[in-house]
Amino acid sequence: xxxxxxxxxxxxxxxxxxxxxxxxxxxxxxxxxxxxxxxxxxxxxxxxxxxxxxxxxxxxxxxxxxxxxxxxxxxxxxxxxxxxxxxxxxxxxxxxxxxxxxxxxxxxxxxxxxxxxxxxxxxxxxxxxxxxxxxxxxxxxxxxxxxxxxxxxxxxxxxxxxxxxxxxxxxxxxxxxxxxxxxxxxxxxxxxxxxxxxxxxxxxxxxxxxxxxxxxxxxxxxxxxxxxxxxxxxxxxxxxxxxxxxxxxxxxxx
Length: 254
Hints:
By secondary structure, this protein is α/β, with parallel strands linked by helices. Helices cover about 30% and strands about 20% of the residues.
């Protein structure tokens, strides 16, 4: 029976064989590696991945699709909302080190998924995700650009990221109304040590009124915290580089 894409799950199934091959090439799966695919759907990417890997763990919320996937002898199926999955409990093949995570993420919850995975970054070797191009533009944005924001800071602190492949709407069934792309995310081997909650709060406050100078937002927040160090608040939030936000979070934690 043909599966009908469900809007509530944000389902758009990848169907372009050329794009699928290009994604697999970008991921470069190797036999014996520990890999998890989020949202395998109709297994368009799943099948070529598992042919290289030998075994693959998939996370699928749609009950009907999970039933189909369980019939595949080389898959371990976790039927769950990915935001509820503890990635530290996922079993890895003998000899595998880090966890590789891939997927065509539901565009309506892609940002929450990225932040959920941030909790497990120390376990992760790399991540390759299909996302709305607009989201990837924000992820990799540089300071002093309109795309630079909270997502840029929080992810660039922990990952080196690159847009590795453009994916047009006609590559999907049904086609989404937006352009897509594939992002590669590789955790920094020695990231700056900082309390994530502190950094997250600083960045959230700074970007709460991004058109104004941060003396109106972050400046007042720092005064409330009785912060006595120097931090230039005569700038807009988008003008502050990632390393300066991280350094401020470190000083506040001292």
